[in-house]
Amino acid sequence: MKIAALVVALALLAGCGGKDDALLIQPPAVQATGARGTFEHQVYPELQLTCAFCHAAPNNPVHAPQWMSFDAKSSYDNVEKFDGLIAWPDNSKLLLKGEHTGPALTKAQKTTVHAWLLEESNERGLEPPPVEKPSEPPPLTADEALAQFGSCMSIDDFKATKAFELAYQQTTGWGPCRGCHNSGWAGAFIDDDAQLMFAQNRLKPFILKLATFTTEKGAFKDMVPAHRFHDKGSEPCAYSGDQTVLCHPKYVPLPEVADGLDAYFTATYDRWKKAGGACK
Ligand code: HEC
Ligand code: HEC
Fold first, then answer.
1. pTM for the whole thing?
2. Separation CA 91–CA 126 (nearest Å)
3. First-to-final CA distance of the chain
4. Beta-sheet pairing, 211-216 with 219-225
5. Where are the domains of the chain?
6. What per-residue confidence (pLDDT) applies to 4?
């Protein structure tokens, strides 16, 4: 680990002179400043490497929401418009999403995105509002709400509602979900060990396939169903051209499984509300 870091550091040092020269000859007038500047110069190059492939694909019938584009400036404009991205870091879907059809941000990317979101929050006054009365609990972040929601899930509901039977749901030609998802591929954990599947689905990123959240002015608002298990099987392929071999298997959830997942969400939501988030 240390040696690898050293090699990277040396490589950076070696390439440093050239880079600085390139920066010097750029006209300063066109450089965005503040949080926008941070996005354009530090965040965009990272997202462009790992996320643009799906999230900036104009004229492509991909299902991935188009919150980026292929240059820094219009990406920023898009990111600004997309709900739930620019928010207090613990409320931002950019940081919370984790592994899905696309990869999770790496640790280093997270650090960059986190710092930029703090800058945005400061500029826009998006911090969770200060606690007026010390007797009141601090405002909940989306990250905390997800953790609470997970802790409010019950294995009895999971089995009784038949949500668990997703483990046996068949796809067209590719067998049951658990054949591919029994170790959490793409942030979807589906296994015929009910206890294991239950436990994993209480945690990020797996919980986000069942439950997600809404935000308002960068603050957490409420938990809502994510419907990823319902919708995945009938969505257009997330890939195009040569990549269509990667298309997800098709399926229509059995009615009892679809209803079971809804009932499981509702039972959890009700318990979460009733307990004021403090399920044990
Ligand atoms: C291979 C394609 C692909 C790549 C690459 C990809 N994504 Fe996605 N992303 C998707 C798809 C498909 C969806 C819609 C389904 C879903 O919500 O999981 C999505 C949805 C999202 C959402 C919206 C979540 C919501 O609840 O509205 C966020 C945020 C996101 N991705 C972040 C990222 C980040 C950050 C990266 C880069 C580290 C990335 N994605 C890379 C395919 C991709
Ligand atoms: C042949 C292997 C395979 C089978 C069977 C399979 N999946 Fe997937 N699944 C994948 C792969 C690969 C990905 C990541 C690429 C993608 O999102 O298309 C994925 C991603 C997902 C995601 C996360 C991404 C998103 O869009 O939210 C969900 C949810 C999901 N699958 C649900 C299911 C369900 C439910 C079943 C069973 C009815 C199932 N899958 C069966 C291979 C499979």
1. 0.84
2. 10
3. 39
4. antiparallel
5. 34-124, 142-274
6. 45
